[in-house]
Design a protein that fits this description.
Blueprint: E1 10-13, H1 14-17, E2 19-22, E3 37-40, E4 48-50, E5 59-63, E6 72-75, E7 80-81, E8 85-89, H2 97-106, H3 108-112, H4 125-129, E9 132-135, H5 138-176
Parallel strand pairs: 3-7
Antiparallel strand pairs: 1-9, 2-8, 3-4, 5-6, 5-8
Length: 178
């Protein structure tokens, strides 16, 4: 969708659209297995949970280090952004936050290709800030957000339905031979 040339768009570096902020390292002893706020670091899953947060809801985060550096995530709730996590804050008025998320997620492989190092690969902040973003007009951005949002919701509903079918199947198979 973002590669089609049928739309007029401008191209700007990420740093022109938002503030890229590196998270704060948190001591592992302060993490718990359950809690109010999840802690995102260099992975695709939370490192643990904490009683405080340092990032607001509706924020895009990008994994800074580790094997999954470059992973793009949309955070619907407050969370703790750890030392191996970038957050995108203060998004400019010319771009919708959800559009920026969908654009970055669609180009996640290009972001992951920005990594350097082999032992513990990471993405340098200055390199990420130079990442180019194609920007449509706000009307077209809204259409993209609504379309991709609807598809995401449908996938969520279908996944939940599949889980329920699996539970039903298991129950029926258990009762089949009673």
């Amino acid at each position: 969708m973002f590669e089609l040339n049928r739309f007029q768009f401008s191209i700007l570096p990420l740093k022109s659209l938002c503030t890229v902020k590196k998270g704060e390292q948190i001591n592992a002893s302060k993490l718990s297995e359950t809690g109010i706020y999840y802690v995102m670091n260099g992975g695709i899953l939370p490192s643990g949970y904490h009683s405080e947060y340092n990032s607001d809801a509706e924020i895009i985060s990008i994994s800074e280090g580790g094997n999954s550096c470059g992973y793009v995530q949309y955070n619907h709730t407050e969370f703790w952004s750890g030392g191996h996590c970038y957050t995108l804050n203060n998004t400019d008025k010319i771009i919708k936050n959800k559009y920026l998320y969908h654009y970055l997620k669609a180009n996640e492989n290009k972001i992951m290709a920005l990594r350097v190092g082999s032992g513990l690969p990471n993405i340098q902040k200055s390199t990420l800030e130079k990442f180019e973003v194609k920007i449509l007009n706000l009307y077209e951005q809204e259409k993209v957000v609504l379309t991709l949002g609807s598809l995401s919701n449908k996938i969520t509903v279908e996944s939940e339905l599949l889980k329920q079918y699996e539970i039903q199947k298991k129950h029926l198979l258990q009762n089949l031979f009673i």
